[in-house]
Design a protein that fits this description.
CopG; mainly alpha; Ribbon-helix-helix protein CopG domain-containing protein; about 55% helix
Length: about 90
């Protein structure tokens, strides 16, 4: 993977914690900073489609807690039924 150089301003206390963690873990400070940038990028990513758009054909509204629980339970039961051996007739 290619890298691109960039400059950022960081709090001195954060940099001290990173320096300590890098020494303790035996990795570079840059690697810890790269991991942090990746986590920040993924946490702020916007997906093109909703998470359940292809796996769940539900109402076009946010599901209630009970509805989510029931949908997951139904899927698990269905999967278990699919895995059961069928009696040969």
């Amino acid at each position: 993977m290619s890298m691109k150089r960039t400059n950022v301003y960081a709090d001195p206390e954060d940099l001290a914690i990173i320096k300590e963690a890098a020494a303790r873990r035996g990795i570079s400070e840059a690697e810890i900073i790269r991991q942090g940038i990746h986590l920040a990028a993924m946490a702020n990513r916007v997906w093109d489609e909703p998470l359940f758009s292809r796996t769940y054909e539900g109402p076009s509204r946010t599901l209630a807690r009970d509805e989510v629980r029931d949908a997951v339970a139904d899927a698990v039961l269905s999967e278990e039924e699919d895995l059961r051996p069928r009696n040969a007739a």
